[in-house]
Amino acid sequence: MLIIRSTGEGSWFDFKTRGETIRLKIRVTDADVIAGLRKSHRRTEFARDTDTRKMVKVEVFDEDAITEALIDHVLMSFEGIGDEAGTLLSVTIENKKKVMNIPPAQGEQSIVDFVFENAREIAAAGQEDIEKQIKNS
Question: Is 0.90 surpassed by the pTM of this model?
């Protein structure tokens, strides 16, 4: 049976990068979630149609706000990540963006790819099956 998870739940995953293991709590992200985020950052403006020269309504999306909202949605929490002074980072939208932008070491998967790959998997399968697959890999 295919189990569809609700978007409110998240699952913890261990991710190894640069010789360290961090924990990331990832939430379901699918086309409906993304569409909802895009809709909430959409506005209507008037622009001149190049053919008719008349003013027409056009939808404009705030792509930066959509990206920030998506990061905030998909990455619920994280553990084991600190600043240069060794202080653990608190879970804020600014720190979530920093975590998602950590470049991968050569030959490693990026955090952003790992997060979105697992968010899609959670959306399509039971949480227990995914956790078993991660532990067994």
Answer: no
